[in-house]
Amino acid sequence: MADGNENGNKQEPEKRSLLNQHTESHFTSGEIVRDIIIGVSDGLTVPFALAAGLSGANAPSSIVLTAGVAEVVAGAISMGLGGYLAAKSEADHYTRELKREQEEIISVPDAEAAEVAEILAQYGLEPNEYRPVVNALRKRPQAWLEFMMKFELGLEKPDPRRALQSALTIAVAYVLGGLVPLVPYMFIPRATDAMALSVVLTLIALLIFGYVKGHFTGSKPFQSALQTTFIGAIASAAAFGMAKAVQAK
Amino acid sequence: MADGNENGNKQEPEKRSLLNQHTESHFTSGEIVRDIIIGVSDGLTVPFALAAGLSGANAPSSIVLTAGVAEVVAGAISMGLGGYLAAKSEADHYTRELKREQEEIISVPDAEAAEVAEILAQYGLEPNEYRPVVNALRKRPQAWLEFMMKFELGLEKPDPRRALQSALTIAVAYVLGGLVPLVPYMFIPRATDAMALSVVLTLIALLIFGYVKGHFTGSKPFQSALQTTFIGAIASAAAFGMAKAVQAK
User: Fold this and answer.
1) Which of A39-43, A108-112, B16-20, B148-152 has the highest mean pLDDT?
2) How far apart are CA A172 and CA B6, in angstroms?
3) pLDDT value at position B181?
4) Scanning A158, B27, B85, B91, which has the fewest C-beta atoms within 10 Å of its C-beta?
């Protein structure tokens, strides 16, 4: 905890000691966890709903399995490759904006300096308070560039490995999620029987996954478990209903 | 364009004039556009691949349509509701972090001031250069709070309407995307014939959508059109192959 000294003119060592003593436990969720959540959320829900819908429409297990596996593979590729291209696109966007800021710092430094002033002025700072910062940045072009990227544009430098890592994580998570509701159809020939087991397995998986997701994202885990299972229930009920409706025509 | 005056001690009106004259055209893509892209990307790809896979496995059009419609409905609900809960979760996260920072500013202001110093020191600023900023923020608790939220945690205040808007946009986009490859199966009873038309329609749709996406995200539109269509081709080829494999057992 900090000492009671309210004086702003602290020695550097004392500041660093304060920083070390006072650890703030702000929540940070890893990118990998986020990708797993994205993949498993849809992977558990959509193949389950599709299989349930087709079972309700009296399709045999072989057709249900064919459709389910085809959907899981297509979904994993679409989400995985789509996520890869999106991450690449963000990286390219960052690089373009970086180049643009670099040129502006060189060609129109006064306008850029005015932007720094405007950014700091938003926090109620007076010119005499922020002018030393503006002048200091003008003398350090690399730091100035990083300051503009972060504080004007709000862009973080993306990790080049992220795109591939993200794509693979989402795709694998989707496949693993999708397998849970489909496994019963691999062993039970009557789709309606397989569906019963599929519902039980998927329900349990959704509850567990929802709970774990809530834990990682800092939401209430029980509430998250119920919400996640609720989405699965709604999606499968809708798929079931639509499948019956299409078959009735 | 800026005047040639390199002096940092500018008058405020001159700075504002510089800001108005010099408009930087940094790219900004709306949240709605992003959600449409997310929805249509998967909506065009997965139902198309699923339908193609089932057609290749010799299912009749009625089964393909049943599976396709069930998948579109399930996918739209999963992505839409999932997106809604994710946005709500981010909003709750922001509120929790805001409260925590608020308490820390009140209870351990010296540690928080040290954090401001550390943030600014990352840009090569010396203590005498950033100290006026630290002291100025200490006198303005609301501005200090906003500064910590943005510069320490990198969190923006989310719009409360975003969650619902995002969910509906993604869901509707997914449904509209999914209808394109499925419409032929509504009118052509032989699945293999319907698939031929489905391939043509979806290919055209993927090319157009990919081009428009590239335009909006600042990537090269032609490259984006080809990449988007390529994903659709890969996903449907994989679904086709998996469906054949499952049927062969």
Assistant:
1) A39-43
2) 55
3) 96
4) B27
How far apart (Å, rounded) are the C-alpha atoms in residues B160 and A38? Answer: 22
Confidence bin at A196 (pLDDT 50/70/90): very high
d(CA A123, CA B212): 38
Measured distance CA(A77)–CA(A72) in Å, rounded: 9
- All residues of chain A having their beta carbon less than 8 Å from the beta carbon of residue B9 are 131
At residue A10 the predicted structure's pLDDT band, cuts being 50, 70 and 90, is very low
**A148 to chain B nearest CA, in Å?**
11
A168, two tokens: 């693979």
Nearest neighbour of B26 by CB, restricted to A57, A153, A227: A153
Helix (H, G, I), strand (E, B) or coil at A200: helix
Q: Where are the beta strands (DSSP E) in A64-130?
A: none
- For chain B, the distance separating the N- and C-terminal CA atoms, rounded to the nearest angstrom, is 71
**Confidence band for B26, pLDDT divided at 50, 70 and 90:** very low
Q: Which of B18, B133, B231 sits opposite A110 (nearest CB)?
A: B18
pTM: 0.80
Rounded-to-integer distance, Cα A79 and Cα A39, Å = 8
Q: Does the interface predicted TM-score (ipTM) exceed 0.90?
A: no
